[in-house]
Amino acid sequence: IILSNPGRRNALSLAMLQSLRQDLLHDVKGKELRVIVISAEGPVFCSGHDLKELSSEDDVKHHSQVFEICAEVMTLIQKLPIPVIAKVNGLATAAGCQLVASCDIAVASEKAQFATPGVNIGLFCSTPAVALGRSLPRKVALEMLFTGEPLSAREALMHGLVSKVVPEDKLEEETMKISRKICESSKSVLALGKATFYRQITQDLDTAYRMTTQVMVENLTLRDGQEGIEAFIQKRQPVWSH
């Protein structure tokens, strides 16, 4: 999926959010879809919401619609049974930074930067803070939110906002390397594992272990669960059902 409105700095307008939602859901149950990569055209990955849509020219109903579909898209990414990778080359600000934080994996070029500068224009990044506060240490997230100052790609890596940082000319190669590795695994097992990860992360330790213990047993009932174990024992490559 390519954010393709560089003239507007790939802003998440209502139309862009609707298109992104549609693309994320496209063929999501198809056997061939194994991983989704979100990238962008131009020097800015995503500048966040289109501020022209948030002016007083539009009413509260329109403003609510923009933020509601944005929240829907961000939560959809983690609800999808498919791993979603952000491939970031350039600046990701406000809801654009939220988009990166919401993805399962984020690969960034050395020129990438990440910021939540809404405070500087009188619109605190409260919704981006949801994703940011779940990806970064609290004090790092709050410094970004309070000051609007950007994190470099290396700082974002150090604090856990992105998974990997590579030179710009290696970004495509590294993203595809991760994607191909994901595609080697069972789709049904990955779907179960992703859903379980996001369920357990909000639970207390005992509850998380009880739930994941049940899921491990469930995993063993899957055809691919048994196929993988048999293939390992027999020292051969597994043949997945999907």
UniProtKB/TrEMBL annotation:
<dbReference type="GO" id="GO:0006631">
    <property type="term" value="P:fatty acid metabolic process"/>
</dbReference>
<keyword id="KW-0496">Mitochondrion</keyword>
<dbReference type="Pfam" id="PF00378">
    <property type="entry name" value="ECH_1"/>
</dbReference>
<comment type="similarity">
    <text>Belongs to the enoyl-CoA hydratase/isomerase family.</text>
</comment>
<dbReference type="InterPro" id="IPR052377">
    <property type="entry name" value="Mitochondrial_ECH-domain"/>
</dbReference>
<keyword id="KW-0276">Fatty acid metabolism</keyword>
<keyword id="KW-0443">Lipid metabolism</keyword>
<dbReference type="GO" id="GO:0005739">
    <property type="term" value="C:mitochondrion"/>
</dbReference>
<dbReference type="InterPro" id="IPR029045">
    <property type="entry name" value="ClpP/crotonase-like_dom_sf"/>
</dbReference>
<comment type="function">
    <text>May play a role in fatty acid biosynthesis and insulin sensitivity.</text>
</comment>
<dbReference type="GO" id="GO:0016836">
    <property type="term" value="F:hydro-lyase activity"/>
</dbReference>
<dbReference type="InterPro" id="IPR001753">
    <property type="entry name" value="Enoyl-CoA_hydra/iso"/>
</dbReference>
<protein>
    <recommendedName>
        <fullName>Enoyl-CoA hydratase domain-containing protein 3, mitochondrial</fullName>
    </recommendedName>
</protein>
<dbReference type="InterPro" id="IPR014748">
    <property type="entry name" value="Enoyl-CoA_hydra_C"/>
</dbReference>
<keyword id="KW-0809">Transit peptide</keyword>
